[in-house]
C-alpha cells in the first residue's frame, strides 16, 4: 500500500489550499464603463460585498460608456455601465464576438450644465447657446462669452467636458449640436467628472457639464444653470422633480447596465444582478439620481429569467425620452 511521506502530505494539503484560494479568487464580478453610472454601481457593489462578507469581489472601472462597451464586446467584462443605449456598431461588435446581453435601465439622470458660483450673469441657457459653444465650427473662433450672446461679458470662454469615449459626451453633443460626437476639440476633456468639477470651480470664466450626481456632491463650489425647455420656453433647473414631471428636457436621459448572458451562468454575477435590482431604488436616491418605478426593476429580472436579450433602442440614442416613455417601451418587449 502506498503511504504518503510527511513532506508529500504537506505539499498535498498546500496544493488543496492553493486550489481553494484560486476558487475563492475566481468569485469576481467585473464591471466597467460610464462614469455617470459609476456612483450607482459602486454603491451597489459596496453593499453587495458587505452582504456577502467579501466572499465575492466586485470591480468597477471607469473607462467611459464607449470604453466599457469595447471591453464588453471583447468578452472581457461581465457588466457594462452605460449612460446611453448600445450603438449599432457596438451591437455588431458584440454579435461578431458571440456576446449576447440583457439591457437594464436602472435610473434617470439630469445631465447638468454648471458654472463657477461667481458667475453672476448666466441666469439661464438655451440649447442654441450650447450649440454655438460646442459645435465644431466654433473651434478657435468662439472663444469669448460675448461671441455666444452679446449680452454676456467680453471674457474668455473656458469649456470643460467629458472625453470622446463618454456616453454623456455623445448624448450632449447629439442634443446640442445635432450629431453625436460632433464637437469642437479645443476644450478641456476628462474621463473623470471630478476633474471638470475642479476646473469649473476654480475658474470664474468656465462652463462644463456632467451627470447630476457630480453636481449634487459639489453644490457648495458649483452653480447649476437652468436650461430652457425648447417645447415650453421655461428655464428649468435639474432636480428629481423636474426629471419626473418631464420638464427638464432635453437633457434628461435613462442610464443603464448591460449584463452579458454568458456571465449570468456564473452564480456570483446572477446574485449581484438580483441584488442590484432589489436594492437599486434606495441607493440611486442616495447618490442623487432618479430611480425608476419598482416595476422596471422587477421587469429587468423577468427579462433575465426569460432570456430576453438585446436592446429596445435599435442602436441609437433617443433625445427627450421620459420615464413614462421608457416604461411603455419596456412593456412592449
Characterization of this structure:
It is a single chain. The protein is α/β, with parallel strands linked by helices. It folds into 2 domains: 11-108 and 254-331, 3-Layer(aba) Sandwich (D-Maltodextrin-Binding Protein, domain 2), CATH 3.40.190.10; 112-237, D-Maltodextrin-Binding Protein, domain 2 (3-Layer(aba) Sandwich). The protein contains 13 helices and 13 strands. It has helices at 6-25, 38-51, 64-73, 88-96, 127-134, 145-148, 167-176, 193-201, 212-216, 240-244, 267-286, 294-305, 323-331, and strands at residues 28-33, 57-60, 79-82, 101-110, 112-115, 158-162, 188-190, 206-210, 223-224, 227-228, 235-236, 252-260, 290-291. Helix 7 (167-176) links the parallel strand 6 (158-162) and strand 7 (188-190). Helix 2 packs across helix 11 (267-286) and helix 11 packs antiparallel against helix 12 (294-305). The relative contact order is 0.18.
Question: Brief description of this entry?
Answer:
Helix content is 41%, strand content 17%. The chain has 333 residues and is α/β, with parallel strands linked by helices.
CATH topology of the largest domain: D-Maltodextrin-Binding Protein, domain 2
Please give the CATH class of the largest domain. Answer: Alpha Beta
Mean pLDDT: 91
CATH architecture of the largest domain: 3-Layer(aba) Sandwich
Name the poorly predicted regions.
1-24
How many structural domains can be distinguished in the coordinates? Answer: 2
Query: Order of strands across the widest beta sheet?
Result: 2-1-3-12-4-13
Number of strands: 13
| Share of helical residues | 40-55%
Q: What order do the helices and strands follow?
A: HEHEHEHEEHHEHEHEHEEEHEHEHH
Largest sheet entry: 6 strands, mixed
Shape: globular
The CATH superfamily of the largest domain bears the name Periplasmic binding protein-like II
Distance between the termini: 65 Å
Secondary-structure content class: alpha/beta
Tally of individual helices: 13
Strand percentage lies at 15-25%
- Oligomer state of the chains in this structure: single chain
Radius of gyration: 23 Å
